[in-house]
Specification:
The complex is a heterodimer of chains A (277) and B (100). In chain A, helix 4 crosses helix 9. Chain A is 28% helix and 13% strand. Chain A contains 10 helices and 9 strands. The mean pLDDT of chain A is 95. Chain A has 277 residues and is of the alpha/beta class. The radius of gyration of chain A is 18 Å and the shape is globular. The longest helix of chain A is centred in the middle third of the chain and has 12 residues. Chain A has 2 domains: 138 residues, Oxidized Rhodanese, domain 1 (3-Layer(aba) Sandwich), CATH 3.40.250; 123 residues, Oxidized Rhodanese, domain 1 (3-Layer(aba) Sandwich). In chain A, the strands form 2 sheets. In chain A, strands 1-5-4-2-3 form a 5-stranded parallel beta sheet. Chain B has one domain: Immunoglobulin-like (Sandwich). In chain B, the strands form 2 sheets. In chain B, strands 1, 4, 7 and 8 form a 4-stranded mixed beta sheet that branches. Chain B has a 4-stranded antiparallel beta sheet with strand order 3-2-5-6, with no helix packed on it. In chain B, strand 2 and strand 3 form a beta hairpin. Chain B is mostly beta strands and 100 residues long. Chain B is built from no helices and 8 strands. Chains A and B meet through helix 5 of A and strand 2, strand 3 and strand 4 of B.
Chain lengths: 277, 100
Amino acid sequence: MSRADVLVSADWAEQNLNAPGVVFVEVDEDTTAYDGGHLPGAVKLDWKTELQDQVRRDFVNKEQFEALLSSKGIGSDDTVILYGGNNNWFAAYAYWYFKLYGHQNVKLLDGGRKKWELDGRELSKDVPERPQTQYTAKDQDTSIRAFRDEVLDAIGQKNLIDVRSPDEFAGRLLAPAHLPQEQSQRGGHIPTALNVPWSKAANEDGTFKSDEDLRKLYAEAGLDEGRDTIAYCRIGERSSHTWFALHELLGHPHVKNYDGSWTEYGSLVGVPIEKDV
Amino acid sequence: MCGAPAQTPTLPPGIDLSKETVIYGVVTDQDGAPVPSAYVRLLDSSGDFTAEVVTSATGDFRFFAAPGTWTLSVLHRTGAARKAVHALEAGLVEAPLILE
């Protein structure tokens, strides 16, 4: 696995907007961003209404995922290029989600929407019409998805990386500061977790730091490369960004994303929590 | 902004300003025109990233922070700016930003 297998540059994207077998997909927290202008030809995925089950807290199942991608005109063999706002948080989440369902050819646009806009590149309001496909997904690859019992068992045993901001880690904030703070869960972090905010893996224009800088970042934070790793944040999107850095860019073999993250852990009765630092 | 009425941010329903510390403002250019699609970051007292928003069509941004010392950093293809913000207690804290 090398950087070129999992990331594309804005220049590459601009030259391949109409390339056959390549589908650009925008995934945002602010799902109206797409409507105001997107990469020409890109389709939209709504992480909240399309990638989440609308009743239970879980992902859509394999059949629902197949129906969703078929309706978007995405084929199982297409190269999917994901991008979005928030420095690619939700695009990284979708990347991990596509991998969970076994999509082979998926890449992130380095820097996402932010770099594209800062570069002053073209945005379009036209919504493309793609013919329906027969998408086939694989069963969930749970070697990259962590659940709560596994997280509890990992305390003191595996690398736990809390990728939220220092204020969230210390329990002073309960959500990233673009969201209201009043939440039902308790504040703090999972005991023994390292705090390596996702933002340290990215440059200010939203692109990923170099492999060398990333290796240094996690080594200095005390990540033990001999142990398995579980990354978490508040709802699992920022930790997908760090999962991408560790698993896809640095090639660490055993890294899971805990998508339940703090909104689940911080609501569990009786589990250990640490506050402050 | 001389003589202009005080700007107030648009808040989601149900926000309790006795509990939320809202840092908000408008990003403008040197001529005072609002700048949409600027990237505004909120950094904590150690300079670490806390959140980022994109300004609205009217140049507005808004954060839900906590009392303390913060830094705002804005990036746009036409310029950038940085400003320290002190929030003494919960409530509204206005922090306009002018691109340099």
